[in-house]
Amino acid sequence: MTADTTSNTTANTGKTAATSVPVHPLLAGRWSPRGFEAAHRLGEERLRALLEAARWAPSAGNSQPWRFLAAHRGQDAFTRLLELLDPGNRAWAGAASALLLVAAETADETGRARPWALYDTGQAVAALSVQAQTDGLAVHQMGGFDAAAAREAFGLGETLTPVVVVAVGRLDADAVLPEPLAARERAPRTRHPLESLLLPAVPAVPAVPAVPAVPAVPAVPAVPAVPAVPAVPAAPEGQAA
Ligand SMILES: Cc1cc2nc3c(=O)[nH]c(=O)nc-3n(C[C@H](O)[C@H](O)[C@H](O)COP(=O)(O)O)c2cc1C
After folding, report:
1. What is the greatest pairwise CA distance in the chain?
2. Which H or E run contains 115?
3. What is the number of other CB atoms lying within 10 angstroms of the CB of residue 16?
4. In this structure, are residues 150 and 84 in contact, taking their beta carbons and an 8 Å threshold?
5. Strand duo 2-3 + 40-41: pairing
6. Of 19, 129, 142, 163, best ligand 1 pocket probe by most atoms within 8 Å of the beta carbon
7. CA 89 vs CA 22, 32, 79, 142: distances in Å
């Protein structure tokens, strides 16, 4: 087994994003692999650096709503987390060095809702991912897990919402994966064009007022039926009319 003790900034460059303009290599080089080195062990210092990066993420009112449950491969909690994953994720995530259950505290101690808790927690995981990339580690976030079962299995209170399970480890480009996972691992990374993400900055064009409805032309009253003219009795034969 190999334990991480040092930083390594060269990993995971195989699927570097083809960006429209240059961006930081850590961002362009990050991707979500399924092939992990099954013998790699995540050192405590490395794990701590990941969590520390997450800890310093910005959050609404500095509320810091993110919570992490970390388990190394081989630990009981790792096995329990693995069992909570959807089958497609369970097929590869067991080779990760650690699994993290990430939860968001969606209300404060007084019960007041934290509307940005999920957003903030995502930012913390983003920071963790970049730190992992710096340290030569790979991260793969998974929404495909049984959140209700996770809440139950780890005794999470009402205000804690399980958000993702994160696989952390060292990329193994030669890992043998079943299809269709192997094909996905080889596939180029894609994104929507940048322009398609941009909302128009112009004020919305006011709606054209609706043309007032033309009042309905009153119905022409029906012409009263002309009473039938009584038939003039025929003059008797031989009389002038
Ligand atoms: C919230 C979230 C949930 C995700 N859930 C899964 C998942 O359940 N299984 C999986 O294989 N990948 C999952 N991913 C990874 C995405 O599929 C991946 O980030 C996306 O396809 C872009 O690929 P890239 O990260 O390699 O650039 C998830 C990512 C995020 C952020």
Report:
1. 142
2. none
3. 14
4. yes
5. parallel
6. 142
7. 32, 12, 13, 8
The model carries a pTM of 0.83
In the prediction, which pLDDT does 46 show? Answer: 98
- Write down the residue that tokens 């009795």 correspond to: 233
The letter for the amino acid at 221 is P
Kindly tell me if the per-residue pLDDT of 54 is higher than 70: yes
Q: Measured at the alpha carbon of residue 184, what is the angle toward residues 85 and 150, in degrees to the nearest 5?
A: 10
pLDDT of residue 11: 45
For residue 31, how far is its CA from the centre of ligand 1 (angstroms)? 9
pLDDT recorded at residue 217? 61
Residue 202 has pLDDT above 90, yes or no: no
Name the least confident of 27-31, 137-141, 195-199, 231-235. 231-235
- Which residues contact ligand 1 via a Cβ below 6 A? 31-32, 89, 141-144, 164, 189
pLDDT > 50? residue 6: no
H helix intervals, 71-192: 76-84, 87-93, 117-134, 147-153, 181-186
- 223 versus 7: which is more confidently predicted? 223
Q: What is the DSSP string of 54-96?
A: HHTS--GGG---EEEEEEETTSHHHHHHHHHB-HHHHHHHTTS
Helix axes of 44-55 and 117-134: crossing angle, nearest 10 degrees: 140
82 phi/psi in degrees, rounded to 5:
-60, -40
Contacts of 209 (CB under 8 A, 6+ apart): none
